[in-house]
Amino acid sequence: MRKIIRQILTSRVYEAAVETSLDPAPALSAKYNNTILLKREDQQPVFSFKLRGAYNKIANLSENELSRGVIAASAGNHAQGVAFSARKLGIKAMIVMPVTTPEIKIEAVKRFGAEVVLHGNSYSEAAERATQLIEETGMTFVHPFDDELVIAGQGTVADEILRQNPGRLDAVFVPVGGGGLIAGIAAYIKMLRPEVKVIGVEPEDSDGMACSLEAGKLVSLPSVGIFADGVAVKQVGRKTYNLCKEFVDDIVRVNTDEICGGIKAIYQSTRSIVEPAGALGITGLLKYIRNSGCQGETLVAINSGANMNFERLRYVAERTLVGDSQEALFAVTIPEEPGSLKKFCHDLVGERNITEFNYRLSDRSKAHIFVGISITDSDEREQFSNELTAAGYINIDLTDNELAKTHIRYMVGGRSEEVKDERLFRFWFPETPGALVRFLDATKGRRNISLFHYRMQGGDFGRVLIGLESANGDDRELIRRLDELGYTYFEETDNPAYSLFL
Known about the structure:
Blueprint: H1 2-9, E1 22-24, H2 26-32, E2 35-40, H3 50-59, H4 63-68, E3 70-73, H5 77-89, E4 93-97, H6 103-111, E5 115-118, H7 123-137, E6 140-141, H8 148-164, E7 171-175, H9 180-192, E8 197-203, H10 208-215, H11 238-247, E9 250-254, H12 256-270, H13 280-292, E10 298-303, H14 313-323, E11 327-335, H15 340-349, E12 354-358, E13 366-374, H16 378-390, E14 394-397, H17 402-406, E15 422-430, H18 435-443, E16 448-454, E17 461-469, H19 475-485, E18 488-491, H20 496-501
Parallel strand pairs: 2-10, 3-4, 3-6, 4-5, 7-8, 7-10, 8-9
Antiparallel strand pairs: 1-2, 11-13, 11-14, 12-13, 15-17, 15-18, 16-17
Helix pairs in contact: 1-8, 1-9, 3-5, 3-8, 5-6, 8-9, 9-11, 12-13, 12-14, 18-19
C-alpha cells in the first residue's frame, strides 16, 4: 500500500493532464438533502481520466522502451489517452481497435498522430492482435487498468479530491470497468481518510468487479452490456481486484434507465453531457441516497468521461424518464367499443399525463393499448397497476421490459395473420458494414425473416429485433448457426409484450 501511495504522490500525470475541478451540484444537493459534489474528469484534454494513467505509465518507461514506441488495444478513452501521451513525449504509438469501432473514435485517435490498426469484431480479438504485434515490433504494451503505474496515475484523482475538499467527506462514488480508477482512489483515500467510504458503481450487465468480490476470486463474465461501453470489461484486473478487495467498501449496481437518469442529472447541474460510463458515479450516488435515506452527508461522484456520440442522445432522452421513476409503461386491455378509451383516460389516468399512447385495431371485442403514464415515484407505478386491476382492466407493467422499451413501442400494430411458426430474437449487431450480410449468410435457407426492427442509437452495437419463421422444424440447427455467428442474442418468443402487440 505504501508503494502505491508513493507512486501516486510522485506521478508525472500533470505533464499532460490537468487538475480538474470539484464542482458543487446545488440543485441536486437541495433535492436530496445532501451536499453533492462532482469531480469533473470530463475536463481533461481527452475528456476522460484515462489520460492520467496512460501518461504516467508511458512517462516512466526507459529510454530504450520509449524508442521502440507503445501499443495499446482499445476502442475508447484509453486509446485516446495513449495516443495523446505518445504525441506529448514524441514517440510512436499504435492502437489496435475492433473493426466495429465508430469512425468518430478512430479519427480522434488519428488526430493525436497514432497509427490505427483495425482488427476483429471485439476488444478481445483486438487485444490478441496487439499481442502478436508486440512480438513483431518490440513495442511496449500499455495496459488500460491492470498496471501499477496506470493505477497510480488514476489515483491522483483522490489526491485532488482530498485537497479540494479538506472538510467533511462521507463517500466517494467511482465508475468501475477494469478497476484501475477505483483501485487507485481507494488505496489513497483509505491511507489518509479511512473513515471515508469508497463505493464502486457498475452496470448490472457489466458487473465483473462486484461478481469477483462476491465470489472471492476473479470471475470472467460470459458477456457484457453494450450501453456503458466504457466499462464493458469481462474480467477485471488481478492487481485492481486485490486492491478493491482490501479497500473498497461496496459496489452499487445500476441499470440502463438509471444511467440515463444520471446523464440527465449531470446535464442539469453542469450543462455538460457525459458518456454512459461517465455518469455511473452520480447514478450510483443517487441510488445510494434513495436506498439508504441518508441526509446531511457530503458525497462525491466522479464524472469519468464525456466522449459521448451525439446520435446516442435520442436513446438517452427516451429512457431518462423511466430511469428517474417519472414514467411507467403498461400494456392495458380495454373493451373495443365506443367510449371505452375516454372512460379509461377519465376514470383511471385522471390528472396524470399520458406520455405515450400506441394502438391499432386487431380484435373486435378487445383492444390492447401501449400507454406511458407520468408518475412521481416507483410507488405510484404499483398504485396505478392496482387501480387498473381493481377497475377490471387486465394490465401488464412493461416498465422493466427491455423488448417493449427498445422495440415494441415503435412497432405497435405490426401483427400479421400470415406469419406461421415464428420465433423472436433480440440481437446486438456490430455497427459496421456487412453485419447484416453476415447474419443473412448464417441463417440462409433456414428460416424466413418475418419481422425486422432496427433504430440507430449511436453505440458500437445496434439493437435489432428479428422474427424468423419456418415449418421445417430446424430449431436446433438455427440455434447452432446463431451461436456460431457470434452476435449476442436473446430469445423473446415468450415475452408477453410480443404476444400482445406483434
